Amino acid sequence: MKKYIYIILLGGLALGSASCKKDFIDLKPQDQLTDAAYFKQPSDFRAYATGFYGQLMGWASPYGGNDVFNHMDVSSDLSTYYAFSSDVGRGTIVVPATDPAYSNAYSWIRSQNILLKQAAVYSGNAADIKQYVGEAYFFRANAHYSLLKRFGGVPIVTTVLDVNDLTPARNSRYEVVTQILSDLDNAIADLPIEQAISSADKGRISKWAAESLKAEVELYEATWRKYNGAVTDFAGSGKPSSDQTAQFFSEAASLAKDVMDNGGYTLWNYNTSLSNQSSFYLFNLEDAGSNPAGLTKASNNEFILYSVYDYVLKQGGVNLSFTSYMMTPSRKMMDMYLCTDGLPASKSPLFQGYHNPGDEYKNRDFRMTSYAGGIPTTVDLTKGGPGYANVKFASYNYGSYRNANQESPNFPIIRLAEVYLIYAEALYEKNGSITDAQLDESINKIRDRAGVAHLTNGLVSTNGLNMLDEIRRERTVELFHEGFRYDDLKRWGIAETALNGSTCGEVVGDASYTTAFRNSAGANTSFYAPSSYVWGEEAVSTAAGTLKCVVIDSKSNHNFSKKNYLWPIPQVEINLNSKLRQNPGY
Predict the structure, then answer these.
(1) Rounded Cα distance, 471 and 450, in Å
(2) For residues 275 and 277, what is the distance between their CA atoms, to the nearest angstrom?
(3) What span, in angstroms and rounded, lies between the C-alpha atoms of 559 and 554?
(4) 3-class secondary structure for 223-274?
(5) Is 0.90 surpassed by the pTM of this model?
(6) What is the pLDDT of residue 396?
(7) What confidence tens digit (pLDDT) does each residue in 379-423 have?
(8) 3-state class of 122 per DSSP?
(9) What does DSSP say about strands 303-307 and 503-507: parallel, antiparallel, or unpaired?
């Protein structure tokens, strides 16, 4: 049976092995055990570092409860489900008393600092603990990165603080980024390549995961600075010492290229045996019973950084399939999918319109049915729903495969498809151009799996497209519900525009555009009950022009502003530390 990496601690001291127990018996009574007494041999460092893995996002969120669904960008412009993250999607964020995203991160950073402190005085062979030191640097970088994305500049902590050091001032976001990148450089130097990690240890961090995260951080920060400048910085924040955007774009592309060329990863593409539905089964992949081709997790060489789950040893523990099914896409998301000729539906002669249920699914990107389900023959708009479904992560959609709370696919954090997208976007942002060859070695590999014609400079120029928009479209579609949308909208500086419109569902049309819901006389059919839609209808831009659609959430509920690009520092932290300054607007 494959051995998996499981969590034995979340921070602080852990006694995780027989050798640890032996040292404890020989050396110290339990009430006198100290960090110095614990970190005596490589197995101690390994056991302690294994505890860091509980800090990764997974089905069991490190922030508790159902927070994984908040992470999945529900309530964004792409989603009609408002059970999670509605305060973000609508711009109604208020200053919280506490926030585990803040307090947990610093607890985790403390645990990494403990290991690094003990590694510095370790009397054994440093090479024996090198991997675990690299993991500590990686996880400390990841914790600071999580804080950066949520709060901007925060206090940087690189030592084990004592009671006299618990009120540090905020560092600027620029200093935080410098620290993150420094830690990732140390991690890259210390971590093994994926190919050197034994099958028993699959799931531990590799050099390629650290390079991928560094590329992600640099793209994130470079676009943030390019499109937002310093407008979100807290009062008194320092400024960057130099304009690093071009450097970050260049380094992000270079790191992504290294992972692409040398990491040994491949896209999980079994379209021939999975009826072109690889993008569905990838996110439900468990054992051979999870898909018609009998594939197991051993076939997945696309995930670079992920949280490990197993039906027998560590189940997901959340009602994944049911909740995922409820996280329905919006009109905007459905129109994002390209036609098979590589053109947006609004420009493609292959687009079939919205007249009959299922028409809009024809001649489209395979991800449309992989994420939204099979082509429908009827759609019911009598109960206030959007008319669409979501099956990404919904494993029960294949033969009622798992019961609620037992679904156990691995949770993707960074996968090769994202690295391809980082590479293309960073190149275009740096140079204002990208070659067809560069598109072929990145984005077009994703489009091959999706059954979509290649993105080329000729396609863009001939059809009046914008290359950056098409690169962003590819990212939006591929990474749907994987936790990137809000951060992408903010780093591109377009969140206010994207999030303040009405969230719509199916096209219902009118007398001039008949559908299954409204006939040529303009009368409603039995498939449509307008009274079930509190916010009525709205004429919005669609792939077939401006048409009437059902409104799931009205623009009158949305007031997202620049202040919402960052979350407020929780009030209890400000009460405890007078040096902390609140983010602008809160």
Answers:
(1) 15
(2) 5
(3) 11
(4) HHHHHHCCCCCCCCCCCCCCCCHHHHHHHHHHHHHHHHHHCCCCCCCCCCCC
(5) yes
(6) 61
(7) 999 999 999 999 999 876 565 678 888 999 999 999 999 999 999
(8) coil
(9) unpaired
